[in-house]
Design a protein that fits this description.
Structural class: alpha+beta
Largest sheet: 5 strands, antiparallel
Shape: globular
Strand order of the largest sheet: 15-14-13-12-16
Distance between the termini: 43 Å
Number of helices: 14
CATH architecture of the largest domain: Roll
Number of domains: 4
Strand content: 25-35%
CATH topology of the largest domain: C8orf32 fold
Amino acid sequence: MLEIMKYLRLPLDENIEKAKLSGDFERALTMIDQRLADDLVPEAIKQRLRIEQEVLRRLPYDYPFEETGALALIQKEIPDFTKEELDGFMDAGDADWFMIHGKRHLHRRFFESLKKVYPQIAQRAGETSGASTLLDQNISDMKKNGMAEWRVHLRHTLKIRDEAFVPGKVLVHLPIPAECMNMKDIQIIRTDPENAYVSDVSHESRTVSFEAELTENRPFSVEYAYTSTVKYVNPDPAEAVMKTYEIKEEEPQLAVTPLIRELADEIAGSETNPLKLARMFYDFVTAHVIYSFMREYITLGLIPDYCASRLRGDCGVQALLFIVLCLSKGIPAKWQSGKYVTPEYCGNHDWAMFYVEPWGWMFADCSFGGSAYRAKAYERHDYYFGNLDPFRMAANNGFMKEFDPPKKQWRIDPYDNQSGEIEYADRGLPGEDLISECEVIEMHKII
């Protein structure tokens, strides 16, 4: 199913686009069915329409709140919050919305986005921002020791929600640590069921998978341990090596579009030093792109263009914009993702890597850098250009990479894998039909 994604770069039929943007998804799907049955429509356009079928099926889930319901949701925590305030956030793009049946509906996590980005909203809701003591202490320790190393032991469990379960054969994939520069001593401790297939440790989107004939609903789990190791770098632009690399673009998302090329030229000006260029792109993303929880990535179209034009995005959207800006100027860059893990927390996260000699591959976490920038924590902002903390589990060392064994049905996320996937023989299960849980069993500092 991944090969079809390259057709996302093709335009959508104008009438279908009109119906989609007005929120008349049923009409849009009907028109797609008509085009797919028309022998005169080129196969490439049909492939684009097949992607859009999946997009239209998923969009309503991400936008459950009609405006009055959204306002009522906020007023439960902030009684004096006004409709005019909500309209202002919607118009500015800070409260994401989409038309559904002629009415504006807000994203299911719009209020979380507002509280995350705007401290005054969080304070009015009675929440206090969590201190970044762990991150700042890590930065201090890494500058002192030159590196950091933690041993981490996690359990990841995935289950079909009871209301979505039907008996039948399923294929299950759970992400596990992959061998890379910041992951070593990886140990798969146990799986449940035991008869699991573990993909090669070097696989770019590494998973443990299960094939099972289910008569009753049950969870699937994997328990693993790994050592997270990161070295501190403080690169000096004067030492950067000017070198030409063969840049391989990967459609549809890791390709340099006209918008990205124009933006890169505008940011870069006459600069040619690769380290300075990468820093300029990092500074642009962290200072200009406001964090926002996103709907499913498959519904965003060309994601770097989406981010560059809206100046909104979550960790993965920001990482993709940074990566393609680097690629546009001949700087090798790539994706890494998995989990952000602390002794009290385990959640999904994405970040970027870029290559400049003599240092080789370095990290850039635009999301962590952006939050530091907004908090005026400039030392932490500087740190996340070139460096990463050890609180990671990297399962994906590439973007839009196939599983081993491959899925046959649509993935929840065709680009990445952090929460796991389950499919029946005739369909893939959407994220809302699954319960994915990550448990930190043990975590301790080595260095």
